[in-house]
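Lab notebook, bench 4. Still working through the backlog of constructs that have no structural model yet. Next entry is a single chain of 264 residues. Request: give me the structure tokens for it.
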Amino acid sequence: MSGRVAFGINSAFAYATAELLTSALHETGHGLMAQSLGFSPKIYAFYEDNPTGSAVQNLLILAAGPVTSLLLGVIFLLWLRRGTPRYTFPRLFLFWMAWSGILLFVNYLIVTPLMRGGDTWAIVDILQAPVWTRWAWCAIGIVAIVRLAPIAKESMFAVAPQNTQLDSAREQRRYVMGGFYLPLFAGVVLLAPAGIGGNPSIVMLGLLASIGNIDIIAATLYRRPDPPTMHGLDATLRIDPLAIGAYLVMVALYVFVFSRGMPV
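Model written out:
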């Protein structure tokens, strides 16, 4: 098996695992805020049973999930950028953890006027904000994707194997397509087993939301920051057992724990 194929497979497993973990942390953010306000919430596959309280309580609980995702995503991105550019599976996983968290927040902004029942839709409903503000949030999210694209591509370069050709725009697009674009779609398929035993409509919504993360990957295809000049020692490029093991652990957590509801 070629190194490029192995990298793509590892990336697909890393994306699926990161998405499942990011979703769990997102719902935990909702749950911890609800608990701090005196409620007893549970976390399920791709959702948390948001309690109903006062308007202020509801706003705090709704906002806690996206804010948690954003903060964790930024932390993971800073962690990734502090390391020496090189390929290892943990660094590839760190890439997807960073961008899964950031994108969960940004894409919530984008779908504010479109996704009834989403966190941001519910927030603007409680605030009784005019319709134009929903589209303003959407516009802010789209601008954020464009502005974040060069940073996302630099972090892709930071996990590229040393022998990856990145000098030309064509070579960079080939790397993004094989290492991140196609693996994202494969990763969404890998997410499906985690929905076993969950609410089918919510699981389907979670899968659609995961596909939505393609926006930042697509945006990087048309950006061309310079590859890193220094490079550390790569790990062996093969299908990493850690990639499969971490994925199976997360799927088992969803199927056997979150499907029944886990108290926060």
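Notes after review: The first helix runs from residue 3 to 36. The chain has one domain: 3-263. Flag for follow-up if needed.
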